[in-house]
Amino acid sequence: MQKYAILVLKNLLRSRRRTILTILSMAVSLFIFSILVSLPTFANQMLADTASSVRIACRTKMGIDYPLPEAYKLKIATTPHVVAVVPDVFFGGIYHEASDQFPSIAMDPEKIDVMFPDWGFSRDGVEQFKKIKAACLVAQGTMRRFKLHTGQEIQLRGTIFPFSVTLTIVGTIAKGPAPSFLIFRRDYFEEAAGRPGIVDNFWVRVDDSKAVPEVAAALDRQFANSSAETQSDSEAVFMGSILGRFRIFMKLAGALGLIIVTAIGLVAANTAAMSIRERRSEIAVMRSIGFTARRILSLFIAESLVMAALGGAIGCGVSFALFKAFSLSADALGPFVALRIPPLVLAETLAVALVVGFLSAYFPARAAARRTIVEALRLVD
Amino acid sequence: MKSAIENNNASHENRESAAAPRRATGDQPAAVTLDHVSRTYQRDEFEVRALDDVSLAIPRQSFVAIMGPSGSGKTTLLNLIAGIDRATSGRVAVGDEEITGMNEPALAAWRARHIGLVFQFYNLIPVLTAFENVELPLLLTDLNKHDRATHVEAALQAVGLSDRMHHYPRQLSGGQEQRVAIARAIVTDPSIVVADEPTGDLDAKSAEEILNLLTELNRRFHKTIVMVTHDARSERFVESVYRLDKGVFVGTEPGGLPEKTNTARQAPA
Amino acid sequence: MAIPFKYNRRSLFVRRVSNLMTGGAVAIVVGVFVAAMAMVGGLNSAIRDTSSPDNLIVIRSGANSESTSLIALDQLDALKFLPGIHRDAAGNPLISPELTSQVFMPAADHTLDTLPLRGVLPLSKEVHDRVHIISGRMFEPGLSEVMIGKLIVNQYPGCSVGSNLRLGRRTWKVVGVFEAGGSSFESEVWADLHSLQEDSRRGSSFNSIRLKLEPGADIPSLVQRIASDPRINLHAQTESEYYREQSTITARLRVLGLLVAGVMAFAAIFAAMNTMYAAVSARTTEIGTLRALGFSPAAIMTSFLLESSALALAAGVVGIILALPINGFSTKFNGAISSPTLAFSFHVTGTIILQALVFALLIGLAGGWLPARQAMRLSVVNALRRT
Fold this sequence. Notes:
heterotrimer, A: alpha+beta, 2 domains, 9-stranded mixed sheet, two-stranded antiparallel sheet, elongated, C: alpha+beta, 10-stranded mixed sheet, two-stranded antiparallel ribbon, 12 helices
């Protein structure tokens, strides 16, 4: 096995330029591929995290400009199986530039630790949030992104609402629904807004996940045929419908990924075909010495695999490092504001590289190795 | 049919022949003159002396061979005469021109005009037909398509391959390929044809055909032919043999043919 | 004279398997380019406003779009009779106060789309003069009737003339379909302003005012007046300026698309380079022969550059053809939750095709450059060496 490894390496180094160009070509394609594959994987991971939730999102059925009355809170709270209710309003303010926008939401503070134990609020944070009216909690990613610290005052300019809010950061969120995120208090919002008494969405926590469908149906039933109808779903379904908005990106990313794999295959196959063509005489000689067709085949395949593996490693390495260093900020990408390449994707990209490397060398090499010695020698001129 | 080339011939190098009697060979400027020519080049860490202080002259309209053992520098000598390599020191004059001082573009233009090249492995462009291969040197002139065709057809006829004009090299035998190569070499009517082992890859019969063809080019069309060869059979076709050994010019010997020294042999046949 | 192109054409054919594979890679990259640009172009068209250059749109100062703007009735009243605003035959100013709202529409694949609703007055048609009713009629004011843009037709259940649509708090009857010169209005549902105000409990306020300018109106001074008058205090700009600002998202997507295509181009360039190097290597003797015959190094380089360019261009044409079917493919674009769902179609224009061809050519030149240079630099003597 050792001797073959050396042989493979020597052959690759023989035409260094061709090897390097092939590796680079594959690396570039796999770089894009790894990014594309990250999108749906990232999204699926977000969904998976919220899959086994005991939370229901009870929101307005009508539209963004048709919020629910806050009076619903009491009625929801008295529904069987309901443990806690937290109303929220989507404020959507701008911190610095419009392009820096991240979601900001006003919530009732009393029960947020009961409702969102998995969000990782800093301990004092929640306490202070319940005490101080102008408090806000900020996601760790956002703190890092804008270099904020606890105790700092920040201002959010209103977009949907015609006023700004000035808040004091009292704590952080470790793992919220979006990497960039801010919560402040709804009573502060109401006061600034002139007490409209509106709620965009009620978060409802039930005591047992099995009760979720029943409770959701009960809530919708209760408010059906009123002037403010609700749509209640488990959190997983709710997140799904939001992420589903980006379905077109997913589909495009998937299609593009497939196309790229084809391109990689063509490049690798071409390289394999070229080296095989040039080494025809060698192959003939090796066959006449006694190498089996299979040995020769595996030699070429091994060469292709090495190049593919290196291409994959470089491509992945660059995409991983790139996204670790910079956080992508694009309002159009919504929840994908801070995209990272998950380890799963790295593995997937390498696997694709290896499979493509294997297949694209297999067919040309097999044909070459199979030629009878006499045929092959005759081609040697 | 050869008239087109003859006309070309007449209008170029040998303008004098139609008007005045030629001087004796000894008084004529030589076709090729090498004056203390050396050619050395680097091969990794070694300095290789391919030619060492070579001085020789090849008479006009002669048919000569350059012979010597392997590594003697004969191919290098040929390359210098053909203008595809430069001497490290010394002067090289071909025809009436000293080519030592010419820059690349000038040399390229000169080659197209004044030298015909024949190689051992024919060096035909495989994707071009016989006609198109022969036409190549003419593409470097100002001739229009029609005139070019006339010259090409004449050249192919001179080598006896008019019926294979549109064949590709792979459809021709070795001897036929070499004849196409010779046609290519004479299509611009150069006064000198250099051939590097022209019969090296041919069987005895084809080799003889080629040598006969070269002889005819020399006799009928007064072309100087300088042939590098290690085929001893070639000796009887040439007037003199220039011997090289280890890059040094050893001397000349008479070949199988009498030298053209008499002034009587002037007019075109 | 140069080396004839038939030499390159036939040489490409000789190594056809290799060139087909390389060409395939180039075709793919060019196809991706076309698709990306077609998507951006389609989105741009959807956002692009093609209505009159003589309309102004007025929104709240500091708002960055209609949907985040809020205007009160008294501001409208103060604005109505400003000079420069076009009037109809009866002397009424052509002003369209408009209320925009996003309603949720569950889509077929369980996603949540946001459908843009626009409350307008009957005379809005005078202001939006590119809007034409293509089937049915305009809604009657004060009633629960709507007309839908032509891109909405059959997008959701109830989106056809005569059916009922449940939007907001009530059920509306669809009475007509309109087209609007390819602009984003065609993805909207238009209802009576007052009915919508009532349904969404917005009182008498609205989001924006559009007004038609008098021919030769002094736009800057009108804009200034609208901003500085304390009773008005609003931000006015021409419609085309407004929409240009709104299309930053597509600008971003365009950059993204170009980036992806650009990066992929490198993969194609490396592949082309590989192939050309191999070709040069295999044809060393030919190159030497051509040089010996008197062809200049420049002629050699040009020849090989031509060859790689021809290959890339041919592949580019194939890539364009492969990407063409995407033309006209309609789909929805969903941005952030507060922006409306955009219906758009991929649009392959002549410009895109031209750009794609140039793109292919550049790939060919970039990929062929170094190998061609190497071909040019071959020493004639070495190229002709027998070994």
